[in-house]
Amino acid sequence: MQHWEYLVRVFELNKDDEVVVDYVTQTYPDRSWKELPEYDPLTLEAWLNQAGQEGWELVKIEGVSAQGKKGDVGLAYPPSYPGWWHHYLCIFRRLRSE
Q: Which of 12, 15, 29, 68 is positioned for an S-S bond with 36, CB 3.0–4.6 A?
């Protein structure tokens, strides 16, 4: 029987993260990760593609204001305009066969 398996992660846009550096270096050899803006969306692309390579399908993504020290995620209320996000709550799923 097949069942859905879920993965929930908060990704922070961080161009200096090892996953991002490796991804940009290998996928975009004509670009330097050092020259990326601090919160370039390419950093999120790196994490999403890594999850995809592991068979995970992104089913929901939502910008969050921050992740707390206890692991909680939150939104500023009222949200600041224009709503700049550096953290993204991502929910993935994949089929698991048993």
A: 15
Looking at the domain assignment, is residue 77 inside a domain? Answer: no
- Spatial distance between the Cα atoms of 57 and 54, rounded to a whole number of angstroms: 9
Q: Which residue range forms the structural domain that includes residue 30?
A: 2-67+84-97
pLDDT by residue, tens only, the chain of 98 residues: 789 999 999 998 999 999 999 999 999 999 888 898 988 989 999 999 999 999 999 999 998 887 778 777 777 666 555 667 888 999 999 998 77
Q: How many domains does the chain have?
A: 1
22's enclosing H/E stretch is helix 18-27
* Total count of residues recorded for the chain: 98
